[in-house]
Design a protein that fits this description.
This protein is an all-beta fold and about 45 residues long. The relative contact order is 0.17. It has strands spanning about 15, 20-25. Helices cover about 0% and strands about 15% of the residues. A hairpin with a 5-residue loop joins β1 and β2. A two-stranded antiparallel sheet has the order 1-2. The chain is globular.
Length: about 45
Amino acid sequence: MPRVALNQEAPDFSLPDAQGNLVRLSDYRGRKLVLLVFNRGFV
C-alpha cells in the first residue's frame, strides 16, 4: 500500500462502518477535519 505524505490529500477509499454501511472518504470532502479510527479485531 502506498504511503501518503504529510499535508497531502489522502487517496479515496471505502470501508464499512459499525452498522455495515459503506462509507467513502470522499463523502467527507470539503470538511475541515476528518478523524479515522481503525479498530483491530473488531467484529
